[in-house]
Design a protein that fits this description.
This protein is mainly beta. It folds into 2 domains: 4-112, Beta Barrel (Lipocalin); 118-240, Lipocalin, CATH 2.40.128. Helix content is 5%, strand content 51%. It has helices spanning 4-12, 118-121; strands at residues 34-39, 46-50, 54-57, 62-72, 75-80, 83-89, 94-99, 106-112, 123-127, 155-158, 162-166, 170-177, 183-192, 196-206, 210-223, 226-240. The strands form 2 sheets. An 8-stranded antiparallel β-barrel has the order 1-2-3-4-5-6-7-8. The protein has an 8-stranded antiparallel β-barrel with strand order 9-10-11-12-13-14-15-16.
Length: 242
């Protein structure tokens, strides 16, 4: 996926408008919505969230990209960075588009609605390996600050606009959910000693007691006495605290 996505993004935004049909003059509303964007005859896709003047491309890990919607030859045109896509509202949840370039590709934007319940996401969560660790005979590692020696075992607390980590120390950052409630990206890295610097989470599955996520994080390590950073992705199961 990581190797295909850059090629995919270049491909879908390098198209010809020779067969573009005249769009209606109705104003499209993208702001505040999340779409799956994909070429008509391709399985690759991107999740794109439109904010006031910026957007997030989640699979591409590109955040705060500039965008605007303008009228172009009596059509609605999406300007995404230096790219222009002519859009047509097909129905209430689907938009079709043609980008301007050398080749012709029809694009589909499918609006995404909440996949999960927000109340299931909010609350306190413990990673599965730490469940019951407080009852074992293995003592916890020393806390960096003595007052934090009771923050064991580690757990997270998720609010609508913030996530906190309690792991022999406290860290927090603002978060933003997309409209599908599948992704939330962090305004700043969330740091824990065991994981490193977490960047964002994708919720793969959730019920009222278990949440499975895919998270990106950066870990520090020393190589030949030089501090290095390694980016990684892992799937983690979290258990809700009762």
């Amino acid at each position: 996926m990581k190797n295909i996505l850059p090629i995919f993004i270049l491909l879908i935004f390098s198209c010809n408008r020779s067969n573009v049909k005249e769009n209606s003059k109705q104003d499209l509303i993208l702001n505040g919505k999340t779409f799956i964007l994909y070429p008509e005859d391709d399985d690759e896709n991107l999740t794109i969230q439109f904010l006031d003047s910026t957007c997030n491309l989640f699979e591409f890990h590109a955040y705060n990209q500039p965008w605007k919607l303008i009228k172009f030859e009596d059509s609605n045109a999406l300007v995404l960075g230096h790219l222009i896509i002519l859009l047509h509202q097909q129905n209430d949840s689907t938009i079709t588009g043609y980008s301007i370039g050398e080749k012709e590709t029809k694009l589909i934007l499918k609006e995404q609605h909440p996949k999960w319940k927000l109340e299931n996401i909010l609350g306190k969560w413990t990673e599965e390996p730490w469940i019951g660790i407080e009852n074992s005979k293995i003592p916890p590692p020393p806390a960096r600050i003595p007052d934090h020696d009771t923050l064991w075992p580690p757990y997270y607390e998720i609010f609508e606009n913030k996530i906190m980590s309690y792991c022999l120390g406290i860290d927090s950052t603002e978060i933003r959910f997309d409209n599908s409630l599948v992704y939330f990206n962090m305004k700043q890295h969330l740091h824990t000693d065991f994981v490193g610097y977490q960047n964002d989470w994708k919720i793969l599955d959730i019920n009222d007691s278990v949440m499975t996520i895919e998270r990106r994080y950066t870990k520090e390590f020393f190589d030949a006495n030089t501090l290095q950073y390694l980016d990684n992705v892992e799937i983690v199961r979290l258990i809700k605290n009762r």
